[in-house]
């Protein structure tokens, strides 16, 4: 998986303007060649280790586990990576690929700003030009990350079309790529988009699950019963899940953004509420109306605020390999407070959704259950949002 | 019945090149689209492209994005646009080519369970009297069986070729295309360009060596001089953004809008 055309069963593929088709072929060839090349692998591993801070710990969250009735939970600490989230695993890989293809200009879309920061970071490190497209609304709610990108030398372009969030930032990045395809590499941030991106980003993010698998076997002498991760486009979830895909006993749960309720326009739970459609170059599940127009989404977590999802997730759901659920803004906020209180870790609002679901799931599981939760990013970028909601909401973190 | 092929056959015999304006269906209302298409046909259009609006038109520049947004705000749906075409067909003498992104085509007439089948759209579009279909985000490898399905109902499927298409892709595109091949003149999104890089000419010549299907060039053509230059090598000239830009200031005055659009097209006609 995927097949030669980039299909995961009925999902995936390449639905892009003809202008980009040759560039996608070039990227796929470069990727396949690099993957076989020991020098490339060694170089990437070295940057992951000495620049980004891999391996990340698999941390036994004892007080959190206790609070959840004793179901042992480990956290895969991607939040400890350089730039504060798992995104750098992918941008390091893609930057090295871009250099191999002779492309010295990187463009990226970003929602929460984490992928934008991770792209700007590697661009600075390798001396590449960097342009990041970001919805105007996201720029307002993630102002700190906008500043970080600019400090790193990137140009941040406000996107004012459509809903002014991640979806429109993707459109704008694709339009830039169509125009500058000969000199530019599109550093796509998730397992979405046309083939080969879902495969390529999965391969670069699979380091999460490969490490976690080794670490849990060392710590517990057995595989986990559950893997939990939040899903926007789904890159950190695929990165955690994929290396366990043949371990049939390990169950996967992806947690989507339930926003303020599962009615159209109030959430971003694509796998839970969407239908098959084509968005941003791939066939997958999509939130759309009956005429095929893409719907607006809403989530407190900018990084999950997206009406599409990676085709491999749509496929896992179709064949029953993974289960996907939605968690509301309020439950995510509670999850955030819970982790801060019990473990002294403030998660980003995106993985806070997974913690919110864990709080619901854990008490229903057998006592000996073993869980790994992908803690994809840290909460620094969300502190302002947290301050606003945890006071105005009446949700007092002290009482969670 | 292959109306597009027949139209190009007639043009070839008359030693004439096709002039193909693009308008967005339902921008700002369906009534305006109807008057506009009629005026463009009278002003000398040989075929007309009618766009179906989409929320995420990623191959389009700002002008067509805005047109798409206006049409959606005005409530244009695929069903309503097909009804409009059915109405117009009785009096319109030139072929209508629909242009739509793939997702609205796939969702048409399906609902959640049936979505993913383009046949209902193809059938209804053909019955309404449309002659062709262009899908800017559908390369031939994802369109398996579509040209054949189109032929069955009488809808000719046009694929796009670009300056970045290598020779083996040009062959594939030529094989899949019915009616004509849409050659994208510039590496970029739709939208008028002050200058047209010459890369399109080489592409058109390459295509000539491998196919006898007519080749029309679009993206970025805005002036009579550009149209004239393109028409010397290609079989047709497609003009979208430049036309929409001339009507944009007159959206509230349909009569002025159609008049301006017709004048703009006549100026192009004189040079094509």
Task: Based on Cα principal axes, name the global outline of chain A.
Answer: globular
Give me the number of helical elements of chain A. Answer: 16
> What are the low-pLDDT stretches of chain A, counting only 5+ consecutive residues below 50?
none
Largest interface: A-B, 39 and 44 residues
Whole-Å distance between the termini of chain B? 27 Å
Overall mean pLDDT score of chain A?
A: 95
What is the total tally of β strands of chain B? 9
Average pLDDT reading of chain B: 95
Helix content of chain A: 40-55%
Share of β-strand residues of chain B: 5-15%
Outline type of chain B: globular
- Radius of gyration of chain B, Cα only, in angstroms? 17 Å
Radius of gyration of chain A: 19 Å
What is the H/E string of chain A? EEHHEHEHEHEHHEHEHHEHEHEEHEHHEH
Strand order of the largest sheet of chain A: 3-4-14-9-10-13
The unreliable regions of chain B are none
How would you classify the helix and strand content of chain A by structural class?
alpha/beta
What report would you give on this structure?
The complex is a heterodimer of chains A (400) and B (272). Chain A has helices at 18-36, 38-52, 62-67, 87-100, 114-126, 136-141, 143-151, 166-180, 197-205, 207-220, 235-241, 270-273, 311-318, 329-343, 349-361, 383-392; strands at residues 7-8, 11-12, 58-60, 72-77, 105-110, 129-135, 155-159, 184-186, 226-230, 251-259, 275-279, 282-286, 322-328, 370-375. Chain A is α/β, with parallel strands linked by helices and 400 residues long. In chain A, strands 3-4-14-9-10-13 form a 6-stranded mixed sheet, with helices on both faces. Chain A has a 4-stranded parallel sheet with strand order 7-6-5-8, sandwiched between helices. In chain A, strands 1-2 form a two-stranded antiparallel ribbon. The mean pLDDT of chain A is 95. The relative contact order of chain B is 0.16. Chain B has a 9-stranded parallel sheet. Chain B has helices spanning 3-13, 30-42, 62-73, 78-89, 102-107, 111-114, 119-128, 146-153, 167-176, 199-210, 224-233, 241-247, 254-271; strands at residues 18-24, 48-51, 96-99, 132-134, 156-158, 160-161, 181-184, 215-218, 236-239. Chains A and B meet through helix 1, helix 8 and strand 11 of A and helix 5 and strand 6 of B.
